[in-house]
Amino acid sequence: MALDVLVVGGGLMGASAAWRLSARGHRVTVLERFGPGHDRGSSHGTSRIFRLAYAEPSYTELALRALPLWRRLEEESGRAVLTPTGAVDHGPPEVLERLAEVLARAGRPGRRLSPGEVAERWPGLRADTAALYHPDAGRVHADDAVAALLDAAGRRGAKVRHGVRVTEIRRTGGGATVVTDADEALVADAVVVAVGGWAPGPAAGVVSGLPPLRVTQEQPVHFPVPDALEWPSFIHHPGAGLRLPGGVYGLGSVDGVKIGLHGAGPVVDPDDRDRTPDPAALDRLRTYAEEWLPGVAGTEPEPLTCLYTTTPDEDFVIDRQGAVTVLAGCSGHAFKFGPALGELAADLVEGGPGLPRFALGRTAPAR
């Protein structure tokens, strides 16, 4: 039975849910507070890492579910969004052994490399202690991906409304009512809330068990080098030659080689944040590049800011209570899974079960 579904939020998660729901024949309307391609949240920019290498097998499985959906999206939208580049993880040998083990169990290739072999193949990248190369990795163009998702949803009948701020969500009977800042009261069979760092507002009154969400302003940088698109994605894990907590990630993009710290920014209010670059954060990344990225020598990093919204255990929230499905806490490493998370949301809207790892009300890390 086709349902009337309101998707609140038109970033990656909302757009993914809209695409998969519309593909199943549901009548979908997306309500996005900001304009097309905005940079206020977590879904903008030119690059995100796609990878299969995770220490937790369930995330590798989720990435494997997402991969064919990314390719289907490209076919439906006519946009190329996922570019294979391969990826290099490097750092403590025990970390890389675990990644290699998970990849092998999933039947995916991975090759151990010495720092010398990494330098020979990618002269711009210096590896630490040990490295693992996995070819089934790459980069996703973030802005193009969100636009492609909304376009593909629209081709299947979804309506996308920008400049609409939701002020309240109420459960009403077997469905829900969404109130906008224009005093509209929109009635639907189901609502999907996918508003990133703003989730506690609209979700708080209609679902219980939402874990604390930490919203931070992160500051990656781009080094504008001419060969950026030839770089692999890479993750430098802490614990060997690197002492930065959380490690450093990087990848090539049309804007240059991008690097960033994982979840190291200050806590902010998404409606009231200063997007001025932090000189101390910039210095940390510049110093890192001087030691580990010889290929960007002589270039000045160009900073940018974005929001991270994370849960205490860094697992996502993808769950339903009544007519309301919530996607939250999806920053840091969720972009690669976007279409697969949209599938999970569509399953929930249709009354299917969720994954315990992503449940509302979980009291301890599912690990």
Describe the overall structure.
Helix 1 packs parallel to helix 5 (142-155), helix 1 (12-23) packs across helix 8 and helix 2 (57-77) crosses helix 8. This protein has helices at residues 12-23, 57-77, 93-105, 115-121, 142-155, 200-204, 279-292, 338-349, and strands spanning 4-8, 27-32, 48-50, 82-84, 87-91, 111-113, 130-134, 138-140, 159-162, 166-172, 175-180, 185-188, 190-193, 214-218, 221-223, 233-236, 248-253, 256-261, 302-303, 306-310, 317-321, 324-328. The chain has an 8-stranded mixed β-sheet with strand order 6-7-5-16-17-18-15-19. A 6-stranded mixed β-sheet has the order 9-2-1-13-22-21, covered by helices on one side. It has 8 helices and 22 strands. By secondary structure, the protein is α+β, with helices and mostly antiparallel strands.
